[in-house]
Design a protein that fits this description.
The protein has 264 residues and is an alpha+beta fold. The chain contains twelve helices and six strands. It has two domains: 170 residues, Transcription factor LuxR-like, autoinducer-binding domain (Beta-Lactamase, 2-Layer Sandwich), CATH 3.30.450; 65 residues, Arc Repressor Mutant, subunit A. Helix 1 packs antiparallel against helix 2, helix 9 crosses helix 12 and helix 10 packs across helix 11.
């Protein structure tokens, strides 16, 4: 069984999050470590408008193909079928909802998930999948499948993840959080981060030395209360310093889901 001490340690680490963006960033990191996930994502789907935003860790350009592949075959995804038909919304593995012998030759696995190293998954809902809006974390890896203990850890974590996500989403930013005074150069660097550029690439764009860029990044992270580029981009988005069109497809995607709607 999942150790309660480990669950409490993760909850304590997440409890200090002051924004939705910081919570998402930290939760992806904690989930990747706790259940040995090689690819973790936070997903918000609007099934009515057929749009979704996805933040991934790690974030790589090649994952865009996988995201659009999942969108193309969404109605064939075991999780989509499961949560559309079941009142239960606790965490499950793909292997819990479809026999592996049935799934192993599916287009979704062969064409999309296996190339992305995401053959096995656990999905952790952050709210009941009612209406047309879903918000959830998904932890993926190639092999082996997730163990019962790893699934149980996610089950025990879910109530805390839900409570923190809902609280931060309802409360919005804490008082004064929007008053982040970035210099013009720091705003430029933040924009380049959102565009997916490395420190070396940013240095060539400015132009400046990589050491100078790293100093700008250090100051930027301190002001935004984060420690890495994804946290800075998510925090910048939360504060309105970045618009949707500023976000790189490597960091945060807004995609049009292209499946055909069917009558319930």
């Amino acid at each position: 069984m999942a150790a309660m001490g480990e669950v409490l340690d993760i909850v304590c680490a997440l409890a200090g999050s002051r924004t939705v963006g910081a919570f998402i960033d930290q939760a992806m990191e904690e989930l990747a470590s706790a259940v040995a996930g090689t690819l973790v994502s936070f997903n918000r789907m609007d099934l009515d408008s057929r749009t979704a935003s996805v933040a991934m860790r790690p974030y790589r350009a090649e994952h865009e193909t996988a995201i659009h592949g999942v969108a193309r075959l969404l109605e064939e995804h075991p999780f989509y079928r499961w949560y559309r038909t079941q009142p239960e919304w606790s965490p499950v593995r793909i292997s819990d909802v479809v026999p592996w012998r049935e799934f192993r030759d599916s287009r979704l696995l062969v064409e999309v998930l296996r190339p992305a190293g995401a053959c096995h998954s656990i999905l952790v809902m952050l709210a009941p999948p009612a209406a047309g809006e879903w918000a959830y974390f998904m932890v993926n890896r190639a092999d082996p499948d997730f163990t019962d203990d790893e699934l149980q850890l996610c089950v025990r974590l879910q109530p805390a993840l839900v409570a923190l996500y809902v609280r931060l989403a309802l409360e919005g930013e804490p008082p004064g959080s929007g008053l982040v005074a970035l210099t013009r150069r720091e705003r430029t660097v933040l924009g380049y981060l959102a565009d997916g550029l490395t420190a070396e690439a940013i240095a060539r764009r400015l132009p400046a030395s990589p050491a100078t860029v790293r100093k700008h990044l250090q100051n930027l992270y301190a002001k935004l209360g984060t420690s890495d580029r994804l946290g800075a981009v998510l925090r910048g988005r939360d504060l309105g310093l970045l618009q949707a069109e500023d976000l790189s497809r490597q960091v945060d995607w807004s995609i049009r889901l292209d499946w055909q709607r069917r009558d319930q």
